[in-house]
Amino acid sequence: MDFFLPTPSRGPAVVLGGAAFCLAALLFTFSDALAGVWDVWKTDEYSHGPLIPFVALVVGLHQMAHARPVPHPSWAGAGLLMLSILLLVAGRYSTFNALSLYGLIVGILAILVGFWGFQIFRICWPSLLYLCFAIPLPNIFFVGLSNKLQIISSYIGVLFLEIARIPVYQDGNVIDLGLVRLQVVEACSGLRYLFPMISFGYIVAYFFKGYLWKRIILLLSTIPIAILMNSLRITLIGVTVDRWGVGAAEGLIHDFEGWVVFLLCVAVLLAEAVILATPSRGDRICLDYLTVPRPPFWTGPLRLSRPTLTLIVLSAAIAVLASAGIGTPRHIPVGDRHPVANFPLRFGDWHGSPLTLDADVLGALKLQDYFLGDYQPNQRNPPVNLYVAYYGQQRVGAMTHSPASCIPSAGWKVLADDERILPVENSLSLPIRRVLVGKGETRQLVYYWFQQRCRSLTNQIELKWWLFHDSLLQDRTDGSLIRLVTAVLPDETEEEADARLGSFLDLAYPLLRHRLNHCGTGLQ
Fold first, then answer.
1. What's the chain's average pLDDT?
2. N or C: which end of the chain has fewer CB within 10 A?
């Protein structure tokens, strides 16, 4: 038999106060993950993010007002709350913030189930699913998608320009108009249209009352609409630049074109919904969700019970543990080490000259120590550029950045990309990522790998796993990125450029390993 508090505490106001307390404790526990997502919401691609929780709440209340469920508090709420905390801890230790945010959605579900029972999930799952659209796409997927959309948008934009009979030439994501060359950078990839459009398409599809296949078409059609409209924007920029010069692609005109094109995306989607609606079959767009939801939101008494009291106590205990730092990686810094910035400028026949990163780049990378320099054995060969980024403590927003995200955004086209194993010091095998890139007639060869606590890695998924593993078991998150770049001259082969990087790495690797491999205690 359930234990209830005395009569004054049985009213719905007290129970709702308990649910609000659980939600407040949950938000406090996940505050660091929310701080990370708030920073991403400030970007153009996710500027719609703050609206999503509000829309999800309104839609959820409408769903409850329509269904009016009978509260049946469930013990499963406590289990779901513990699952959400596990996801939070996993996200913290792996620096995978999206995992923590998914845990927050599970925690919200835990409160609903703990106070209203599992029936609430059947009623409110569309709202909970909509919250997922507020979670930024992990960078490992964001970059790949952005790069592909840049090429697709450039290709379609050039096609439209050719239809408009404007002389144009495409080289990767660069559109050559003769006197002016336009680069379709990451900001013009179309993601700032695609993400809001998919989110908006989900709501339109949910408001649409008709056949399921029509709702699926509405949702999926947001992808080609966003891509085609972004290509149209690129075309408009090309036309205005061809007519009035490069100034037409900058400033207010550029931003105004962006807003106009996005409004066209919304108009096309709504027109599609009107076309798909068949009044004779009862199809319609339900506008009731645009009104203020009105109670009652449930049927029958809403009382505190053992499951709800347990959930309240658990939420309070977890918030107290979170405030004490329990479940947060300690990230023990590495002891004595040779600073990367003091990497020698002369070894063997190689002579180096140091370079520096711009202040804004350093602010974005948030690294602890770095080295950047050009090395040459003589004046006849092109230099080898060495970049080493060291992080003593990696965390969300401050960790090694893969060159895979920087190469395309800088306008380079990836011509070849594969993994190789190179023999280095004392017959050791070093896995590296080999990338051949091109921009116009220029080609460069890039080697890079991640040195993570005595492991040389090239795969970012594997990198996340070992970061989680070592952070959890060793309280260690230190790691580095090592990148080598050399030009491939017009009169030389790739093999000659490979030989140049290999010759440099033979002498540089022991010095790098001495500075970056911190295995257990002491330097290795």
1. 82
2. N
